[in-house]
Predict the structure.
Amino acid sequence: MIFGVLDRHYKKLALIPVVLLVISIFILAGNILTHGSILERDTELVGGKMISMSVGGPDIQGVKSILPEASVRLTKGVGSVLIVEIPVGMDEFDAFSRIKGAADARGEPTYRTVGPVIGDLFFQQTQIALVAAFIMMSIIVFIVFRSPVPSSIVVFAAATDIIVTVAVMSFLEMKLSMATIAALMTLIGYSVDTDILLTTNMLKSKDKEIRDRIKTAMKTGLTLTTTTLVALAALYFTTGSFIIEQIAVVLIIGLVIDIFATWLTNAGILRYWMERKNESA
């Protein structure tokens, strides 16, 4: 039934991810004009101090009222850990003494300091790594398919996954950190996985009708994506690490977006191109 709807309205449905992409670009452009960056940067990328402490039942709002300039987050799980980020100029020991009551701190905290210069250096390096990964992926795709239209569609779908995912992260008020950038780099590989599967089936399986090629690829691709989403959801709900939670959330968002980018836009444009090509042959 679902495939029947996709088969009849594939041209219109192909526009949905494109619209999401345009909206996302406007959101991120607005962030750049307003804040100077597509996302607010974490302490690791801007500089500051991090205080991590084991807690029982912390009063998050109480902690924020005591330290209004701080960023406060709590990991889930049995051994909950409260992470408080403060400006680099603030005394971390004084900050801990002020919040340990409201935080219900247990044991001694751990402190970490990242200087502004180091934070900016990390940010520049991660940006270069992210761009380089995307460029290398694009080159490999063009080498594999050796055709500008299918290759361009795969790269476009991957770019859609990344840009829309970052826009959703902005909506959820997630910060740009080493963990989220690593997840975005991982998403580049995940996003082209199903696109390559689809494109390979479309171009190589010449003994089948075009719509049947899409259907076969969709069954395999959605199975792969679904199993990955289940694994990531289990990782998110069972881990007590905030870093792993961040990575899992970013990948879950990206894979959900990839379903639309691959099976609506990529499949729709590729199908239209192949049908026009067959008619003119």
The chain has two domains: 2-41+118-280, 48-113. The chain has a mean pLDDT of 84. The chain is about 75% helix and 10% strand.
